[in-house]
Amino acid sequence: MPQTFDLLLKGAYAVTPSGIVLADIGVVDGKIAAIGAPSTSVARQVMNLHGLTILPGLIDTQVHFREPGLEHKEDLATGTMGAALGGVTGIFEMPNTKPSATTAAAIADKVARAHGRAWVDYAFFLGAAADNVDHLGDWENEPGCAGVKVFMGSSTGSLLVSDDATLAKVLANGKRRVAVHCEDEDRLVARKHIAVEAAHPRAHPVWRDEQSALIATQRLVALAEAARRPVHVLHVTTAQEMEFLAHHKDWATVETTPQHLTLAAPECYERLGTLAQMNPPIRDATHRDALWKAVNDGIVDVLGSDHAPHTMDEKAKPYPESPSGMTGVQTIVPIMLDHVHNGRLSIQRLVDLMAYGPARIYNTRGKGRIAVGYDADFTIVDEKAERTIANHWIASRSGWTPFDGVKVTGWPHATVIRGHVVMREDELLAPPLGEPIRFLNV
What we know:
It contains 14 helices and 19 strands. The two termini are 40 Å apart. The chain has two domains: 4-54 and 372-428, Urease, subunit C, domain 1 (Roll), CATH 2.30.40; 58-362, Metal-dependent hydrolases (TIM Barrel, Alpha-Beta Barrel). It has helices spanning 76-85, 104-114, 136-139, 164-172, 185-198, 204-207, 210-227, 239-245, 258-262, 267-272, 285-297, 312-315, 332-341, 347-362; strands at residues 4-10, 13-16, 19-22, 24-28, 31-36, 42-48, 53-56, 58-63, 88-93, 121-127, 145-151, 178-181, 231-233, 252-256, 302-303, 378-388, 407-417, 420-424, 427-428. It is globular. The longest helix is centred in the middle third of the chain and has 18 residues, at 210-227. Helices cover 30% and strands 24% of the residues. Helix 7 (210-227) packs parallel to helix 8. The chain has an eight-stranded parallel β-sheet. Strands 3-2-7-16-17-18-19 form a seven-stranded mixed β-sheet, with helices on one face. Strands 5-4-1-6 form a four-stranded mixed β-sheet, with no helix packed on it. It is of the alpha/beta class.
C-alpha cells in the first residue's frame, strides 16, 4: 500500500547530497520521510512542480531586523515576511538593536517577540561587549541563540570591541564559532576626514579602505588561532583578505554578500548615491573579481545578505551623516539565481553557500539538506523565470532595494518550512509559523 504523506512534492529536480535528481519528496510531521522515483503515493497536499528545482531551505545567516527599538526601519514580522517572499527559510539576526542584545534576557526577549510573528525559522546572535565577556560561554547556549557576534568596527556603545585585549577575552569565553565584522576602528577614526571632505558616497571605499579590513582580519585570525576558537569573518570585500584567509581555513570561515559580488565602485555610488553605502563598502571591479575567484576556489563558505534597512529619509541625509546599510534578505535568492543563469556559479554551489555552509559552520540541527529525517524546508525555484526586481515587491518597512529595476533570470517559486507551504507564486499562504533554529552543540 502506498505511504500517505502530509505533503508530496512531485515532478521537480531536487538538489540532494547525491546530486541533482528527478524525485518525488514525501513529508510527514514536518520531516522529509521519503525521496524517490516518481510515484503514485497518496498525500493530503500535492505540489506538482514540473519544470522547477527544489533546493534545501536556504538560510540567510546575516540580517538586521531592527527589533527592538528601531521598528520604524524594520521589525521581525516585516523582515521575515521579506525572507519568505524571497525564498529564504531561515535567518540569523544580529544584536545591534536598541537596546543591544548582549544578555540572555535580551535573547529570550527576541525569541518571545518572534513567536507567532516570524514567517520563517530564526536564531539571534548575542553581542559581545566588554561588560559581558565573562558570561558569553554560558549565554551563547541559550535557546534560539546563533552564537556570539563581534563588531571590531562600525558599531556604537558597548557593542564595539576594538582592542585586542577585550577581543582575546571574548574568544577565550565559549566554544561556538564567533561571527565578526572586521574593520579596524582606529584606522576608520583616523581617516574619517576623507569622507567629510569629499561629502559624497564615492569616497566611502576610500575612507574605509582595503587596509582597514585587512588589518582587522589579520588581528582577528591571530587571536583566534592563539585561543583555538573558530571564527567566521563576515562580508569579506577585498582581494587581500581573501588571499590571507585562504591560508587560515583551520580556524576561520568566510562570508561574502550578493551586493559585493554584483555592484562595483565607482559606478554604484554615482547611480545609487547613499543607497549603495554599506560597511564594509562596495569596492571596485578588481575586488569584485577577486571575490568571485574566492567563491569558485572554495574559499567562501557562506553567502549572507547583511540585510540592514534604513528609511529613505534617513538615506537622504548628506554623506557621511547618511547611515550605512541596505536591504537584501528578499533579493539574495533572485540575484544569486541570476548569477547561476549567467554561469558565474552552479546551482549546487549556491546550495553549498546557503544551505550546506550555514549548517556546517553553525552546527544546525535538521537543517541544510534534502535528506530523510531532516526538516522539510525547501526553497523551490524557477530557474528560467524572467522577472524584474522592484521596490513595490519589497516587504521591508524601509520599502526599497538597491536592485530596483534589475532584470533577473531565476525566481523563488515557493517557500516551504517544516512541511508548510508559506509562500507560493509571490503570495503568502500560511500564517507566521517560524520557530527557533536548533543547534547541535547547545
